[in-house]
């Protein structure tokens, strides 16, 4: 299981008079990643190179640096540190000394890796959504089981047959919740498979 960032992080690195500022943020989708770039990218800087990973979705940009010398090393730093749902932007202010392709790869990748290494981590927990119905008499058992298994009610409705709930909980607790509810209600709880 991967981690994401618990909060934004930044790290400044100086290499041969060029300054490299790595800034990282937790993101949930590509739009959030690009919004972070627009927010913190410095138009006065020489380059604002970046990469993000969100599950199987990833992108990177060298922003005018030689191809493969910035975006890919930043993405490699994200993957190498075991992060997911993260955007990293490394802003460079040129210091007058050329670094060469290898130097750029080390500077961009190194700034991103150091930023992430020092950043506060938060484990990503896979969530599952369940829909269920139960008679009114069993509602107390259902609510007690939901609390015990860290399930969050997304919605709850009622009709003449009883209660209808949609809940979200850690995926690794689904089977235990179902088992507890079957036992507690003498199998009167019905689970509705998502359509």
Polypeptide structure, described:
31% of the residues lie in helices and 36% in strands. With 195 residues, the chain is an alpha+beta fold. The chain has 2 domains: 3-123, Impact, N-terminal domain (Ribosomal Protein S5, domain 2), CATH 3.30.230; 127-192, Alpha-Beta Plaits. A hairpin with a 2-residue loop joins strand 9 and strand 10. Helix 2 (71-80) packs parallel to helix 3 (100-118) and helix 4 (139-148) runs antiparallel to helix 5 (174-184). The longest helix has 19 residues, at 100-118. It starts with a strand and ends with a strand. The model has no long low-confidence stretch (mean pLDDT 90).
Name of the CATH first level of the largest domain: Alpha Beta
Q: Compute the gyration radius: what is it?
A: 24 Å
Share of β-strand residues: 35-45%
Strand order of the largest sheet: 2-3-6-4-5
Q: Please write the string of helix (H) and strand (E) elements.
A: EEEHEEHEHEEHEEHE
Number of domains: 2
What descriptive keywords fit this protein?
about 200 residues, alpha+beta, Ribosomal Protein S5, domain 2, 2 domains, five-stranded antiparallel β-sheet, four-stranded antiparallel β-sheet, 5 helices, rod-shaped
SSE layout and pairing:
Elements lengths: L2 E3 L3 E7 L2 E9 L3 H11 L6 E8 L2 E5 L9 H10 L5 E8 L6 H19 L2 E3 L3 E8 L4 H10 L3 E8 L2 E9 L3 H11 L5 E3 L3
Antiparallel strand pairs: 1-7, 2-3, 3-6, 4-5, 4-6, 8-10, 8-11, 9-10
Helix pairs in contact: 2-3, 4-5
